[in-house]
Write a structure and sequence with these properties.
The chain folds into two domains: 46 residues, no CATH class; 150 residues, Distorted Sandwich (Glucose Permease (Domain IIA)), CATH 2.70.70. The protein is 20% helix and 35% strand. It has three helices and 14 strands.
């Protein structure tokens, strides 16, 4: 299992606390010291698990648009997207709990043509207003068959969004494009003529699960 490098300081800190707690428990003894050492060990394991970064397995069919985030599809709607697509598009919203993989991956192959960070609030990520009001970063990818926008949205606990690619950089479908720390949401905007292959309530795996398909005869 691979781990996101952004998690190394957190994992290291948690392991140091756990080691110190077990040292105290071994020298002092007592039920309280043992319970604390156990709790710090569980915390270290959770932090390690949170920052996991499994290698994706995109479908062989290159017309498939894969999930940019891992979690549950909480909303699908037709909405005007003014910043990059500049037209009406289909927005697919994925909520990431603290137990989900928090690395984001490119849903399609193409060129990064838009990269914007917007400061904001930290409301609960599954609320509709989170798409507009919360801290967020938008990454627009141009393809020969249409534009796609991925929006990383901070949640109630999340306080740090990392976006990897720069404008002008090429990305491949399934390639890592960033990470959001500790609970968040990812919105994907695709053209209306792209076939929808998911529905609200679906559990999706980042870089692997199909959310949409480019029209027959062209590749994503």
């Amino acid at each position: 299992m691979r781990f996101a490098p952004e998690g190394y300081p957190f994992v290291g800190g948690a392991l140091v606390l756990a080691a110190a707690a077990w040292t105290v428990a071994g020298s002092v003894g007592g039920a309280v010291a043992l319970v604390l050492a156990t709790l710090f060990s569980v915390l270290a394991l959770f932090v390690l698990w949170f920052f996991r970064d499994p290698a994706p397995r995109p479908p062989a069919d290159e017309s498939i648009v894969v999930a940019p985030g891992q979690g549950r599809v909480v909303d699908i709607r037709v909405i005007h997207e003014p910043s990059f697509l500049r037209t009406t598009a289909r927005r697919i919203s994925i909520f990431l709990s603290v137990f989900d993989v928090h690395v984001q991956r490119a849903p399609v192959s193409g060129t990064v043509e838009h990269r914007v960070h917007k400061p904001g609030t930290f409301a609960v990520a599954w609320l509709e207003k989170a798409s507009e009001d919360n801290e967020q970063a938008s990454l627009g990818i141009g393809t020969p068959h249409g534009r796609v926008l991925v929006r990383q949205i901070a949640g109630l606990v999340a306080r740090r969004i990392v976006t990897d690619p720069s404008e002008g950089q090429s990305v491949e479908r399934g390639q890592r494009i960033g990470i959001i720390r500790f609970g968040s949401r990812v919105d994907l905007f695709v053209p209306l003529d792209w076939e929808l292959t998911c529905r609200v309530g679906d559990r999706v795996r980042v870089g692997a699960t199909s959310l949409a398909k480019v029209p027959v005869g062209v590749k994503a």
